[in-house]
Amino acid sequence: MHISVYPKLQLLFDSSTIPLSNTNQQARSVSHRPYYTLPNGSHGRSVLTITEPPRFHFQAKGKNIRLDAQSRKATRRNSFCNGITFTNRPIHLYEKVRLKLMSVHHGWSGALRFGFTTHDPSLMSADDIPKYACPDLVTRPGYWAKALPERFAQRDNILAFWVDRHGRVFYSINDEEPILFHCGVKVSGPLWALIDVYGITHEVQILDTFLTSDLKIWGPHWNNEKCSQASCQKSLP
Q1: pTM of structure
Q2: Contact present, 43 and 19 (Cβ < 8 Å)
Q3: What is d(CA 71, CA 87) in angstroms, rounded to the nearest whole number?
Q4: How far is CA 112 from CA 6, 203, 230, in A?
């Protein structure tokens, strides 16, 4: 089984297998290939072990964000906004970005915003990072994000979110059933996770990531009709 991934990745397979639907994809050049690809007719249940877990980008962040020494914990100081952060490296397709909600303050309204961007945070200046992910960033090309429902923004909850090869973003809370979040993410190149520590969400910790084992969501259970019926953000030009 050949899989195109970043360096320092290892795939581990267990004895239980779940058949994947045949994608019938034609081979594409490397420059246009999603950053995590599955070959036609592949089978298997897998977990992606990453020796270098993502961290928060140490420089590309809102002015109210403070990071710990390991860049694994982001805390918003003052106000309810200016809390935008990004991962320090691109995220693979089907790689779960996992966040633990460490602190929640109920004096504000609204909660964490999250999604993906095609823009490299290393190339961003302070002027590129506005107060809000929504609507400020998502009205720009190459940014996709929405708000976590406040009922899920509880202390110690673990939020996981990922994007599939169709550009659909899913999330889950505490490893429960995945929820279709939005659609239209462009997956032909690198994607960085976008996390806005907003509103009642005061502090988050980024955890180790791995390839989603919910292989059933890759198949016809989540078809284009279901995606169009969800509250999806349209792809920007």
Answers
A1: 0.75
A2: yes
A3: 10
A4: 28, 10, 20
Q: Are 177 and 171 in contact (CB under 8 A)?
A: no
Task: Return the sign of the alpha-carbon dihedral for residues 192, 198, 204, 210.
Answer: negative
Give one DSSP letter per residue of 211-224, joined into a string: E---GGGGTGGG-H
Question: How far apart are the C-alpha atoms of 48 and 213, rounded to whole Å?
Answer: 9
State the average pLDDT over residues 106-134.
94
87-105 pLDDT per residue, tens: 999 999 999 999 999 999 9
More confident residue, 148 or 5: 148
8 alpha-carbon distance from chain centroid: 20
71 with 56: CB under 8 angstroms? yes
Tell me the average pLDDT across 39-45.
36
Got the DSSP string for the chain?
A: ------SSEEEEE-S---BPPP--PPP--GGGS-SS---TT-B--EEEEESS---EEEEEE-TTEEE-TTS-EEEE-SSS---EEEESS---TTEEEEEEEEEE-TTSS---EEEEESS-GGG--GGG--S-IIIIITTSTTEEEEEPPGGG--TT-EEEEEE-TTS-EEEEETT-S-EEEE-----SS--EEEEE--TTEEEEEE---EE---GGGGTGGG-HHHHHHS-PPPPP-
